[in-house]
Amino acid sequence: MIDNPSLTAELLAKMQAGLPLPALITPRLSEILRKQAPETPIPKNCEVVAVYNSGDEGGIMCKLQGQGSAEDAKVIVTSITHLDFDHRLPLAREISAYKKRRIKKLSRLAG
């Protein structure tokens, strides 16, 4: 098991209560999105408008709303590990701790 179910459920509930959450798209995610849709501008800033638990497969997933009109926006759902959050955000420490634990466990599994 990669994620602690009770800690993940607790963080997920706190995130849902605080939606929308401002976030930053990491350079790695930006690169992936550019490869998938080169014609689509990739914003640096976005808002997490929904969160889901996809279990050990993907962990906490975030649905993003980019800047611009709703008609122009593409739906982006990504793992929370591909996002950065302002350290002043009330949940920033908990999100950071979750991301670190998850990445560490995934690294161990990958060998």
Outline:
38% of the residues lie in helices and 23% in strands. By secondary structure, it is an alpha+beta fold. The chain has one domain (5-106).
Q: Judging from the principal axes of the Cα atoms, what is the shape?
A: globular
Largest sheet: 5 strands, antiparallel
Task: Report the structural category.
Answer: alpha+beta
> β content, as a range?
15-25%
Distance from N terminus to C terminus (CA atoms, Å) equals 16 Å
**How many extended strands?**
5
Portion of residues within helices: 25-40%
Mind telling me the C-alpha Rg?
14 Å
Structural notes for this entry:
There is one protein chain. This protein is an alpha+beta fold and 111 residues long. The protein has one domain. Helices cover 38% and strands 23% of the residues. It has helices spanning 5-17, 27-36, 92-110, and strands at residues 21-25, 45-53, 60-65, 76-79, 83-84. A five-stranded antiparallel beta sheet has the order 4-3-2-1-5. A hairpin with a 6-residue loop joins β2 (45-53) and β3. The longest helix has 19 residues, at 92-110. The radius of gyration is 14 Å and the shape is globular.
